[in-house]
């Protein structure tokens, strides 16, 4: 065991970072999706596939693929060599777009797995591969309570591969058509929020549809794919769990929203009052603009046939989106109350019908 102070992140420090994030699997996936959207090709839709692979009845591996531009260079340095560094992103100080702090990809990966890989290519036949396995730097015998290894985290530089792992073709059939793109792989996942693919999808589908509602259908397609792979057998596609994520518009003003039919073909809320816009300049001279949109469910949605509509039609979806939605660069950052004290408390069912974005 080495305990030399090199100034680098230690294996023990890396292991502790796994438990400092609180966004769960949905947040970890969203961090990867952010990158896929930000680095999509101009004038071309980006297809993002979230692939769950079940082995022995539980999700063992996750692949998140896109057909974006791939990772190139910045200031002469390879982006992929920096992509797993905490704070090593290329969007520091960004005042627009999705990426800003450079901690999303490494935090997301290590929060779900201790063995993760990134494959990225700008043209076919030249695939850049970067990986990190925590066991190379940190090992702890939980039974004996003994620290076996604690080494500085010095990742190997990326390698150039001529082809992907052969089995990727089983899970990403479109891969052969991608001239460029990125794949993030989490192997031997041990910190997923749920173990079964069906449960994962049931808990994160609406959240991802809500977070990316302004992108889905506007140049961005996000899909779930799920496979089970019995031991020593070929993967079996779980067809009922392979589907596109639908937008979940929490203002309920748009058609095609993720609500039960026939309400998905109409706006079920109306704008309440005028759109409010506030502009101000901060101490650095940067201009900021806030827009506040309020909506209210139509009366026939709140009281269909003079009955309370909270449990029927789109009512349950309104409950899922109760609160105030904060959006930055078209991406939802948070849904919550932000300290606003609701009259009669949040349990008053009437609060589900109004929305603020």
Word description of this protein:
The chain is α+β, with helices and mostly antiparallel strands and 357 residues long. 18% of the residues lie in helices and 29% in strands. The chain is built from eight helices and 20 strands. The chain has helices at residues 11-17, 24-38, 79-82, 104-112, 168-171, 197-211, 299-302, 315-320; strands at 46-55, 58-66, 73-74, 77-78, 115-121, 127-133, 138-141, 146-150, 159-161, 181-187, 220-228, 236-237, 243-244, 269-271, 276-281, 287-292, 294-297, 324-328, 331-336, 354-356. The strands form six sheets. Strands 1, 2, 5, 6, 9, 10, 11, 12 and 13 form a nine-stranded mixed β-sheet that branches. Strands 14-17-20 form a three-stranded antiparallel β-sheet. Strand 7 and strand 8 (146-150) form a beta hairpin. Helix 2 (24-38) packs antiparallel against helix 4. It is globular. The model is unreliable at 1-5 (pLDDT under 50).
Helix vs. strand class: alpha+beta
Instruction: Write down the overall mean pLDDT.
Output: 91
Q: Can you tell me the residue ranges where pLDDT is under 50 for at least 5 consecutive residues?
A: 1-5
Instruction: Note the main sheet.
Output: 9 strands, mixed
Strand content: 25-35%
The residue fraction in helices comes out at: 10-25%
Instruction: Give the N-to-C terminal Cα separation.
Output: 52 Å
Regarding quaternary structure, how should these chains be classified? single chain
C-alpha Rg (nearest Å): 22 Å
> In DSSP terms, counting alpha (H) and pi (I) runs of 4 or more, how many helices?
8
SSE arrangement, N to C: HHEEEEHHEEEEEHEHEEEEEEEHHEEE
Global morphology: globular
How many β-strands, per DSSP?
Answer: 20
